[in-house]
Amino acid sequence: MDLERHGDTLTVRTRRDFNLMAVRHLKYHLEDATRVRIDLSRARLVDTEAVMALFRLQREGLDITLLEPPAIFYEVLEVLELESAFDIERLVERERA
Amino acid sequence: MDQVLELPNHANIIGPTTDYAYKWGLNVGLSDDKALRLALAVDELVTDVVRFAFPGEDDTFKVTFRADLSTAEVIVHERGEPFDPSRYVYDPRRAVEEDDFDGAGFAVIDHCVDDFAFLNRGREGKEFRLVQHIESEHIADIHPADEPDPDADREDVEYTLSPVEPTDAEDIAKLIYRTYGYTYAREDLYYPDRIERALEQDEKFGVVVRSNSGRVVGYFAVLQSSDSSIGEVGEAAVDVNHRRRGLMKRMLRSLIEQANERGLSGVFGEAVTVHDISQRVNHHFGMMSTAMLLGLFPPERFKSLSDEHDQPITVIIDFRPLVPYETVTAYLPAPYADLLRRIYDALDVDDLQVPPASEATPRDQLPETTELDARIRYAYGHVVFVVETAGQDLGGQVDQVLDDLEDESMSVACVDLPLDDPTTPAATALLREHGFVFAGLMPRFHQDRDYLRLQRPLIELDPDAIKVYSDLAHALKSHILDELSWTSNDTATPSPSAPGATST
User: Fold this and answer.
1) In this complex, is the C-beta atom of B38 within 8 Å of any C-beta atom belonging to chain A?
2) Does the CB of B96 have a partner CB in chain A at under 8 Å?
3) 3-state SS of chain B: helix, strand, coil percent to 5?
4) Distance from CA of A59 to the nearest CA of B (A)
């Protein structure tokens, strides 16, 4: 996982799938960040551990932005009926024009 | 062949295992999308095992990758804490309101794979099975219409026999479709990419016949067993315009030569019993009936062969040793000793050594725990338990797995017991108490050892719809029906005596 910190914003780029290990890394490096940008362009999979972590971190007040999540992320949200629990428009940063 | 990973319960193995599952899925023929979903299901399962199966302890678990031409299966087997997945049903309301995501992983797995089964193996732990069907393109979709046969009405056709190559795959699929329409039992033969894959992976070998025009008019193949040096003579077709010209005999001769060259110790056929034609052909080529397997295949695969019966199809195992039997040591369970001796006689076993009862393991000295491999054929509705070590919990383990598979609509369960193992008579007695009856001898079926197969039909079958040909097949049918107390109009009562058996 590649990390960059600018003030209270932590930007991470997963090297592989967004799974339990990636979640652990992310939590370990969060420290006092209030904003997290997670670049998922290299992730093929986002599993339920990752979705649970996003849900909980968001509940704790962290401002989370996902960049280029794989298609299966939306499917997992749909299966778990969590679309309405996340504000997708706000959560996922659309590709820049 | 199975690929087995033994893994520590550390979070850092989740990623590599998921990657492996994805690549393996692609290699066995899954589409990218299905391989990805299989990988996500594996990720979810392995994560669960790592997090919850061994609380506070370092341990290992196994992930087995198993595939045939139409199915990719991943089996996660662990011996961790007892667990009942049916108690963890995901509830989205509970997740959002109470932050309780129990069952979320299972919900995603269920969504990602075509079949998801949980098998409680008692002391042997738990198995989670993920199944993805391999999609292929049917020959009728690739070539809806076949060209006319230029050699159809010629008397002077010359035929060329050659070993089958992967490049013949499409021609073989065309021949099958032309010859059998949609009724051929082996569905894989309608899919050129499955044929090609099987040939490339050396899972089968065979012979094709081409007529003057280059058209494939005959095909005959042996499917090599994955855990023994025997092969199944299971695929044969001759174009209707080229029959009665001795092609089948020429192909079989070539096939037996190839089987010998490849060092196969025997060949067998699974002959359907909706008619006795296949059994006659097998016997014409020197095969002997060794077992009758009740309801092994679903009826729709044979629809046009018998419109009157729609019950699952029973098959006769016909076997021909290519390497002659020498001395065979077999612990024959008393109730089946006579029939097994007859079968060994038919297979030309001159020196059958049956140890005395004192050398067999008494029932109370069986080990506590059974080790077995459950080979589930979801598409066919049957399961075969291959026993490595028979223990006191054999019947219980088998019953538990069958309970766990209740939703899979199984027609029959079989158990294979090694006949050279002194525990087999006691294990047989134990399984008989759990409703199992004789099926027959499975010669050289696993690691080149002879196995006694027992079976338990899970549905009712009409015995009169089971047509058998040879004397031995009649004897098998009669014995099995008698043991099940099923009555048939055309069977005689077998002799219950069994001298010379290994008893416990």
Assistant:
1) no
2) yes
3) 35, 30, 35
4) 10
Tell whether A97 is covered by a domain: no
pTM: 0.80
Domain boundary among B99, B133, B167: B133
For residue A76, the chain B residues in CB contact (below 8 A) are 40, 108
Q: How many domains does chain A have?
A: 1
| B393: in domain | no
Q: Is A62 on the interface with B (CB under 8 A)?
A: no
What value of ipTM does the predicted structure carry?
0.95
Site of tokens 């695929």 = B235
Q: Determine which helix (DSSP H) or strand (DSSP E) holds B38, and give its type and residue range.
A: helix B32-48
- In Å, how far from its chain's centre is CA B402? 17
User: Containing domain of residue B286, as a range?
Assistant: 139-321
Which residues, other chains included, contact A80 with Cβ-Cβ below 8 Å and sequence gap of 6+? A48, A51, B90, B92, B95, B101, B104, B107, B108
How many domains in chain B?
2
Give the nearest chain B residue to A79 (CA atoms): B108
Series of mean pLDDT values for 10-residue runs along chain B (504 residues): 94 96 95 97 97 94 94 95 87 95 96 93 89 89 79 87 96 90 80 92 93 93 93 89 88 88 93 87 90 89 52 94 94 97 96 95 95 90 96 94 87 97 98 97 97 96 94 97 86 42 51
Q: Is residue B336 part of a domain?
A: no
Question: Sheet of B449-457: strands edge to edge?
Answer: B160-163, B204-210, B216-224, B230-238, B266-272, B313-321, B288-297, B437-446, B449-457, B412-418, B382-389, B371-377
CATH at residue A12: 3.30.750.24
B85 and B185 assigned to the same domain: no
Look up residue B33 and give its two tokens: 């999308």
Task: Tell me, yes or no, whether B80 and B211 share the same domain.
Answer: no
Query: Best mutation site among B12, B13, B14 for testing chain A: the one with the most A CBs within 10 Å?
Result: B14
CATH code at position B298:
3.40.630.30
